[in-house]
Specification:
Low-confidence stretches: none
Largest sheet: 6 strands, mixed
Bound molecules: zinc ion
CATH class of the largest domain: Alpha Beta
Distance between the termini: 51 Å
Number of strands: 20
Strand order of the largest sheet: 4-3-2-1-5-6
CATH architecture of the largest domain: Alpha-Beta Complex
Length: about 350
Amino acid sequence: MKERLERVREQFEQAEVDALLVTSGPNRRYLSGFTGSAGTLLITRQRALLLSDGRYAGQGPREAPGFEFKLLSDAAPLARQLPDLLQELHIERLGFEANHISVAQYSKLQHELEQAHASCAWVPTEGLVETVRQVKERDELATLRHAIAITDDALAAVRPMLRPAMREREVAWELEKAMRKRGADGLSFEVIVAGGDNGSRPHARAGTDELGVGRPIVIDFGALVAGYHADMTRTLILGEADEQFRNVYTTVREAQQAAALGARVGMTGAEVDALAREPIAAAGFGSAFSHGLGHGVGLEIHEGPAVRQLSQHVLQAGMVYSVEPGIYLPGWGGVRIEDLVLLTDAGPEVLTQSSKDPVVKI
Ligand code: ZN
Ligand code: ZN
């Protein structure tokens, strides 16, 4: 945790701040260890404070021993206490997380600062903590591997249960149960099970349609473990795969493999995206791959690096991201295959282990 703070502080000079107010929940947890749902961090070059209310008077100091705990209350909320704190800590330029503060919060804090005649400048910052979060440490990787293993095991357990008369929602529920039984704290996101035409919308949910026979079924889900998100997609088909399915599936699978295995440290997100986009375009499905190739995962289901067209994020060793090309044909359905990949100096390691054999015998 100390090292994480140092890596954020290293950016203070370039960001032209001498302290940072952290209002993002995942960033708060990452830097302090505090898992409560409310609280703000104030990080200066020397000190680190966790400001939260009475509900967390016990949990806060216990989970975030490296932080000084400051009690907030209705009578003394953050906006009231901040001017004094800034003065006490000699903060002249306070960075705030421009992507993680509401207009209402911002106005309130600014109003109190003005009332107190504080001379501190408010400086918008972006990504100071998120940048550090992209490169995973050893214990974070262990947690991610655990979440991914639960996700793999859940699909292996549910796959033999699939029947043509089963509804999408029943499959989603079976997957949820299987993950919870294996120790997941919850879901990374609501399980997607989308058969036939439903699957042609990349963000379809699980509905009431039956799985049926000979239809592509997109299943996208992941286990949440200790705050970390797994994410996997498999496309299955019950019964016989026809030529159309085989053609689309083979194209997506080859594109997925090319991008998953072809990434190297130093490539941009856009370059890795292109590894998958080119074979799909060459097969004549270019316009049917309608989203970016992938995204980082960690304390959030979508975080950096962005692995998509135009992304200038440079991939580094220790980053974990999804590789999830898809082809979506309205009226027919969709095929998407998604693995999580850890990039290392020696090349990529595909963390997801589930079979890519799409055909479920019935
Ligand atoms: Zn997914
Ligand atoms: Zn994903």
